[in-house]
## 1
Amino acid sequence: MSTATLTDTLLDFRDVAMTFPDGTVALSGVDLTVRRGEFVTVVGPSGCGKSTLLRIASGLETASHGTTELMTDRIGYVFQDATLLPWRDVQRNVELLAELNSIPRLERASKAKDAIDLVGLSGFERHLPRALSGGMRMRTSLARSLTLDPELFLFDEPFGALDEITRERLNDELLRLFAEQQFAGLFITHSVSEAVYLSTRVIVMSGRPGRIVDQFEVPFDMPRDPDVRFTAEFGELVGKVSHALREGHA
Amino acid sequence: MTDTILAAPAADEAITPVVPATGGTMRRRRIPDGPLRIGRWGPPLLVLAAVVGLWYFLSLVVLGERNFMLPPPHEVFGVFAVEKTRLDIFEAFLTTMQVALVGLAISAIIGIVWAIAMNQARWVERSTFPYAVILQSIPILAIAPLIGLWVTDSFWARVVVCILIALFPMVSNTLFGLQSVDRSHRELFKLQRASRMTVLAKLELPAAMPAIFAGLRISAGLAVVGAIVGDFFYQNGVVGIGALIRKYQSRLDNPELFATVILASVFGVVVFLLFGLIARLAVGKWYDFS
């Protein structure tokens, strides 16, 4: 059991702290583990260091204290905005990461095609980003990361800028992808209901300096039924998380 | 008296039919243009008609006998009917255009390479960018005699004048473009451990294209100015527009002088429009220049 747990761990943070050169303490004493099959969501107030946590996990930043271990190099990273290259069409945007990893042309074209199919953008391959809606841009961004077959998928508030309806639809898409593609997820959001709906575990962070104040296992089955959001249990859990968030913030 | 009658109706005719269309476009700005694009071409054409009308008025009515100072339009454009003059002006244009194009091409190459070097290494930017600014502020008329001293071939002396005034917009625009890349785009590449060359080729240069083309457009206009200024200074060798203007000026061939000056201005406008078109064809699909 313990060995299984060890090999299943994809990301392990021990007592991680982050102090920026200007003296800002963004994180302090963070212990966090993400295992295969998990979809972990971090909620917290703005400026609590949620994004910093993700940037450390991806290697964009180095923690100033503590140990961080990453057991895979197949990492997907979805930014707050879609970060598509405006001069490339959907197909070539989705191929970009494979291209940067020197994957041969034919192979990356077929990977891109599969990923575009997965996010439901077939038929839009030749569209430029400016011709797409915000939701479609985000799907393109997701597809781009999917070409790397990530074992660990990091999401930095990816749907924060989208309208409610698009956001809910993309949440469902993401759950479907999670079930099909078998990646582990670490998802940052400031929406409590989004956090509970998407994840197997919700982590609540306090305001700056960000520290973990509470964790909740989400008991609902995967693949998740969209109607679970209207059950009493769901409402109750959202209430608990919100309560923890308020306490941590005070 | 007959002159007045000749001038007035011309202006009237031009004005009456266009007014309703332009008036409508002014009030409701977003109305799509018809197939003739009257909304777009109407107003400048109207101004052109007014200018021609005013020109006739000044030349024939105000100046009258002394209109050698401003020959009427038909006399000015009449010079193209003389084959010798037509050939002289045409050849001068070819020469000036050659100088301007060679100067522009060299400015573009030096400008882009210099900006890339500054973008790759901060120390290159810190140590050389001030000189780009100094280059920009050298009064070209003051330094022209020196160039003549150093570059004896008059064609290349003119090209050097072009480069001196056309280089700065290329350098500064390209550098601005390369540095305008979003942080998140850089991080996207960083996460894949992309090399500097890859970032340059696949991210920075494509992102800089709109700025580079904007710079090219400014530089193209300046290169034309530089070529004409060069003609003025370096008269030996092939005759360019500047030299031709000087010749007509000294001989008091005023209609020819006006014709050449107007043609030079039209040339400048054409170059500006041409490079605008090139920019739109190159990056207009994804970049909105308006």
Note: Strands of chain A lie at 9-19, 25-35, 39-43, 65-70, 75-78, 152-156, 184-189, 201-205, 212-217.
## 2
Amino acid sequence: MSDQAVPANEEMILSAHEITKQFGGLSALRNITVDIPRGSIFSLIGPNGAGKTTFFNVIAGILPPTHGSIDLRGQRMIAPPARAWLEPVVWFVPPLLVLALGIAVSGGNIQAIALWSLGALLIATVILPTGLARPPWYERAIAAMGIFRTARPNDMVRAGVGRTFQNIRLFQYMTTLENVLVGMHLQLKSTPVDALLSSRKQKQEEELARKRARDFLRLVGLTGRDHELARNLPYGDQRRLELARALACEPALLLLDEPTAGMNPRETADMTALINRLRHDLGLTVLLIEHDMRVVMGISDWITVLDHGERIAEGTPEEVRRNPKVIEAYLGTPAG
Amino acid sequence: MTEPQAVTSKEEPPERAPSDTMDRIVSWFSRHRSISVIVAMALFSVLLPLLVLLPPLSGFNRQGVWIDNFNGAGIFVLLALGLNVVVGFSGLLDLGYAAFFAIGAYFYALVASSFTGVHLPFWPMLILGAFVAALFGVALGAPTLRLRGDYLAIVTLGFGEIVPVFFTNSDALTNGTNGIAGIDRPSLPGITFGAANPLPFYVTIVVILTIVLIFLYRLEDSRLGRAWMAIREDELAAASSGVNTVTTKLLAFALGASTAGLAGVFSASRLVFVSPDQFLFTVSFTVLAMVVLGGMGNIWGVAAGAFIIFLIQSVFLRQLTNFLQPLGIPFISDIDFLKYQFLIYGIALVSMMLLRPEGLFPSGRRKRELHTEGEMEELTAPGEAAEPLA
């Protein structure tokens, strides 16, 4: 990439605007604004406790930010809720209407009122769980009423964000293949009814899914171990499996939280090559947290440096390497 | 350090083992699981009534009484299978499961008995009862979505207490503590369902169980089954893989409850009577003990565990008492083992947790979960255990 600053007109896959996250009195993030251009490898570095993982968790929809907003491909995903009071109204008005109607028309007949209130209860038991589960059609419906609710982790996955965790979080007692299949959850369309009836659609989809899951495993270099439990894999392979699971979400933006932590130099080199390949072959955008400076300097297009929850520097690897503030943050003393 | 490819190719046996007829049969059945379930259930359900004609079992009860006992066992197998979805698959500890059993039973009592004067047919009500119980499952699940482990257990325990208390106290609706009698038996042209003729009930419960077993096996292997397991393993990682944890948990509660609803409708029509004391905490506890002792998460194990435990408590403990009493052995002959049923449960559960925490018939997964690294090497196949890379 050219060493000029990220051009403003280039399409941004993710724009985080003035993100602040406070835990009680502690500000883990203060006014972080970051724009990630499509197709780049964008790194987030900083000393321990700088707020990198907090920032990841905010982007992934796990931690709601105290202030600020996040747009993904131009769509507002994470922000303070708007017109939130309206949603309970939407939930409770239909059953209450039915109840009122019942009382009005039944003219004091206790049995008729009981029947109507049963109907109202039935409507409530359908609407309330729907409101809690928030399926996409429901989200669209309440968005049309001007209600905005911040995205949950699974909404971010649906919108195209896949992630790995700093401390590996695999489904330990599921097999390698099953782990990837869970990652493909949103790609699979068959319903529980399809599963119950073992429909043709279900069978074909399952077969295809297994094939595709093996492709993801091959991509990260884990072939022939489909039925091994995730927890029995060596550490480096667990990291690879987590990456395969994240890729199975078919993300446009991949969040990698220290993907080479605990790896030996050989494995680190493999992982670096793999990340590069993901960008070039699959066209993914990668947001990377990494402590290994050789990795960061080697593959990043752009680096943002955090310290104590604030952005202290940004630029190309060359610029960041020479930035005195960065050197100070890492070494604690001005460079001599 | 070798290439990943080189490592993996070493593990895959290049040549297929020569398959004899037995192997071929086994692999055919493992590929056609629904047919296997049907065949196994058919064999088992035909052999069972014949087996009790042989001594010593024939000495305990007449065949009719045995079959009636099997019907009771079938209800608990159904309950255990349903609870296994919630506790075994999804890892949500539910201590109030009897509430859904009660809801199914009372639902049928209200729509098909002389108490209300409504007489709706059994077969559609069986399905509707399951549906009503599922709605209540969702209603219980919705407020407990954020809870896990102990906290969830306490809320479900409360729900399990509220439901029988509600049925006890709403006299006008449910006839209070006296319960509802005169519930309709199922009817089919040419077949009499009755207390003197337990065989039609037996066939009914076997068919219900077969269908439920097939459905559960299919669900376990589906997208939903994997999502349940993922939530049990790591809820945050599941959500970060795109699993909607709310929908998934609610479906677990709904499916577990609907199975209990089936059991409730069947039980009400079999006993032609419901009362609140049929659905106390001891039922929830018994079913949970069946799931744990049978082997949490393993469909067959849970079913077999429930069947065996029910027979032990309802047949063999009584037989043991009857057998020991005339022998005149001091102290032991005076024990009424039925009274000590829960003591025996307690001892069985404690020794199980200490000696074999995965249950009598564990799923492979659970077995691996509950044994430590050192023990694992004995359990895994030699090829798996010999893993030099770390």
Note: Residues 86-144 of chain A form one domain.
## 3
Amino acid sequence: MGGESLFLLPAAIFLATLALYPFVELLRMSVSDVTVYDIFKAWPFIGASGVTSVASTFDFREAAVNSVIYVLLVVGVGLGGGLAAAITLWHGGRMASFTLAVMVFSWALPALISGIAWRFLLDPRGMVDNLLGQLHVGPIYWLVDGHLPILSVALVNAWTVVPFATLVFRAALLDLPTETLAAAEVDGARPFQALWFIILPLLRPCILVLAVLALVYAFKSFDFIYIMTFGGPGTSSETLPFLSYRLAFQLYQYSQGAAVALITMAVVLVLAVVYTRMVRGEERG
Amino acid sequence: MSRTFRPRWIAGAGTGLLVVLYGLPFLWLVLTSLKTDTEIFASGGGIIFQPTFENYQSVVDQQLIQACVNSAIIATGTTLITLALATPAAYALARVKGWMLNIGLSAIIILQITPQPASLIPLYRVLGTWNLLGSQLGVILADSALLLPFCIVLLRPFFLAVPKEVEEAGIVDGASKWRVFWGIVLPITTNGIATVATIIFFIAWGEFLYAITFLTDQTQYPISVLIASQIGLYGIRWSNMMTIAVVASLPILVIYAFSHRRLREGLALGSVR
């Protein structure tokens, strides 16, 4: 005891000034009336009225619904795609290794670059609609038409989650006890049966950890919306983090922006806690 | 044994699909940067064309080179500060137990779930009082604060994997905790630390929200801001945009080419634990 805590000190001081203090300021901002003029001055206190008033707006409800859709798609497609890809590349040789290298590169590219590339590909004159046109489908206005933009952006975001999930699932698959799999094979299990009754239960811990990570990541995801639709057309593809950004930086409603950010975080926190409790309770039997 | 569970043709078709799904977008980005404005939306696939370096000639100028230098400064500075602070902290969090561990991990979780825009205004105030608005150091500090919790989360498993006996041998020899950390633990975790450093560098290279908000002088903009600042405009000039995007991905491509094997192993190892 004693020695190690000194190791924590530099990071703790740094985070206290540049991360925890801003977080406390965010809390304070959500209960104050902050305008452009007094950003560097004292903030008049208004209590929780900012939080409650913003939560009842149409924009907030729209963004909340979008956020839920977005998170479900990113987590579902990200994990499902990752598992499918991991099984595909399970014991592959050179080709699997090459495919993984290409996939992980897409994960390593910043959201800024993959976002702008996909925005170009999904342009009505772009490659995707061009290919669909060859099949006499479309053009589909991926980033413009009705509720499609939020789905398109979520799928692109899921596209970047898949490589990471693939790596983790593949490592877990390679760790599976070979005797169990061999026994299932001897017993004549079909591929789907083996997947459902043997492989998935063994991967459970891994799936749960990834699900929490993806959930937290997807809820606060901001870059892809900013780059691909900027919340538009109109406000139709805004998620909660983007709404919080727009309130603060385009409408200068700093308190409301802070309130939306805090509500988002509270939801993530509650979901993560409930989820881990559920998982633990289940494991205890 | 996986042969039966995963018929050969499915594996083959799946692998092909993955290569197309993940290879094609970046390949298309590169091809587009070699096309003229009129060719990029030409119908019929657009695979056959006369490649030209016109876009590069018009895009690569003093400003772009300066932006790449700025990106390098910001990303390197952020990586150095983040790693210097996160390494000892992650080691400590892999060794302490009880209340200190609980407080540490809770703080990290809170910071991890904070959406980045939420910290913009508070950080604007903090950096303003320190006179660091409009300076790259301000952006480096903000980026480091953003990435430090994530960096600790990534590093901790590597220290948890160090066997106790290795360290105990050092303690028996009478070495101080710092000497044990510096002389014994760090050398055997170099690979893991390098992996995490690579990831932090990549993220810092692509960060644009802090940079676009805290920097005022165009000559200080990193390349990410050059891309992000054109987003809101109507009628993006795609040939130019894709060319800048290719330039911005080059450093990542080069670093990735040298480190992808380690990166893949490190990622899989770190998160399963």
Note: Residues 76 and 90 of chain B are 20 Å apart (CA to CA).
